[in-house]
Amino acid sequence: MRHPSFRALVFTVEFAANTEVEDVMSSAPPSAGTGSAPLELAVGAYRFDRSQGRLMSRSGAPVPLGRRALALLTALAEQAGQEVTAAQLLDRVWPGQIVDPANVGVQISGLRAAIGDTDGSVILTVHGRGYRLAVPMPAMTGNIPHALLPLSGRAVELANVIKRLRRDRLLVITGLSGTGKSRLACAAAQALAGDFQDGQWQVPLPGVMLADAEGLAAHITAAMGLDGGIAALCGRQCLLLLDGAELLSGAALDLIRRLVEENEGLTILVTSHIGHRRLRPWCVRLSPLALPGDAKASPATSLFLAAANAAGMEISPDEETAPAIASICRHLGGVPLGVEIGARAASFLGLRATAEASRDPMHALPFMRRQGPARHRSLGAAMGWALGLLTRAEREALTVLSALPGGFTVAEASCALAKAKTGEPESGLARLYDKSMLDRVGDGFVLNPLVRAGARQAG
Predict the structure, then answer these.
(1) Burial environment of residue 344 by CB neighbours within 10 A (0 to 12, 13 to 18, 19 or more)
(2) Which of 12, 45, 374, 424 is 20 to 30 A from 156 in CA distance terms?
(3) pTM higher than 0.85 for the full model?
(4) Tens digits of residue pLDDT in 240-277
């Protein structure tokens, strides 16, 4: 009767025999394959050149491997960081042969011995399925910009964004142009720096019209400096900030969801003036800053004071200045871009003149500029960008609604739109809301003062 370990002994002898009889380096190295791994990669304390089929020490000295061990290592290296099943390894190392599957385990043991992988931390066992070659990915630092001014008045929103990203790994921040979507997203990325060992990457997309997945993939890989296409994200722990995704559609939006589903280490944060319906479950609306009531402090006034001080205007709220500051913030709708520009104007015109000018911001404050993207350098540019995303029928509907005083109910809006014959009233309201041109208040809607002013000017 044979000893229970007899078969394992035979396989072990076979591995040793193969290593001795076969050429220590195959004269025809295996194909480098089509995997996304680099052609040369670290394998424990050694380097493996897939194109040449050579295992080398750090100094470049060749490490002898038998043909089967070399084929095994090549198969694992082609899918570095990914699982390779035992069946796939059988087909690769013993093509067209009927071989006991236990041979794979024996060859793996011999290969581990050859590379000094005594604890199985280089060639990982995926129990019941196969093996995976664990190789260190190159470090990625990221390109998220650091804001010169601190994020003001958004503590609650920042905490919610961080919570949602950690839970869902996909979030779309929507809202009117100038509400600070990009600034909030960058602050969240910086706060989560410790969560992503491979960095956080901003992919600017404003003005980029993409409906295909390939085009979006090219933008992402270009921003990250990746070779090997979008598949190079596999196995990485990183955050992507797709900034200004208003013009994405179709397969490009589907790619965003698919990337998160297929890469467990990937988190994607999107900013968009438009709430894309394909990503609706992950959309959150960023509202303007809360406005002051009865001349009391508010997030909007806090931002105004910070921006005014940055512009060189030393000011503090008191009985004389607080009403003017509150008036400016209200007339500019609490939109951070408007509040900052109002603060710059105040440093030049003074508080009272700026409070009066803010009543008609599109005509009285067009000369005020700030640094940043072209669409955010002035109030006119921001509202022009937002209006440019509307269809002709949507612009006509917005002009009609801008003539309604204050807030309005759905019934009141529908009646006004029906009289103006701008199309289906209710669907028109829904589209304007999706494009951040309307804000909900209770059961009705309201136009932000900047939207109202921009619509009236355009009309």
Answers:
(1) buried
(2) 374
(3) no
(4) 999 999 999 999 999 999 999 999 999 999 999 999 99
